[in-house]
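Demo today. Your pick:
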Amino acid sequence: MKPQIHRIIKLTETQLILKLHTSALMYSIYADTTLLFIFSKGKESPYGTYEATFYQYNFMHLAGIKSQTMSAQKFYEACLNGTIKIEDCSPTHSLNNMYEKISVINNLLDFKHSKCYRIGEKNLITKDNDFELATGNSSGVIGYDHRISQKGSKKLNRNINAMPTTLLATPITQLVSNPEKIMFILQKPIQEKRYQKILYEIKKGLLRENYSLLPRNIQNSICCYNSEF
């Protein structure tokens, strides 16, 4: 594997604000909802699944920012409204790291043109990929995991959905040589128990056709076929 070369990136204030605004608009498609990613290595391979909840406050961290002027919630709202200012954007690590993440976040939120891999199945190891699942493309990856521990212990609370916690400007093929195809993405409001909306399917009608091949617990989490299915 060739080592990744990080470019020095500089954004003007206008570019920074515009990129944060357009990325927040993209993120708003998923904000306050849970997505079910269903993926596979190929036609004859079984389906894998992963659920992740997209909270509004996750956006700031994905952008590599730790604002000193507002909460993560207010930061997302300001980006969405286009009222964010340069002084609201303090980097979590470094300016270049922040610019790098802001430059690719919009591409990485386009799940229709992404692939994925589970951390337990990776074969190219880096020091940064300490997440459970990643979605990504040639621009980088978004990593998801359970970060909330059970009260009084270090065990992860699996009753709380995973969330997007990491963004790396590292092409997915530098982390795994054969990422899996995202076949379907289902979506539901956080408070709902069952999925009613197909956000994406790799081929129209394929979910209905392959419904019986899904794991039983996933079948039970999908509403009976309605007008959207």
In short: The chain has six helices and eight strands. The first strand starts at residue 33 and ends at 40.
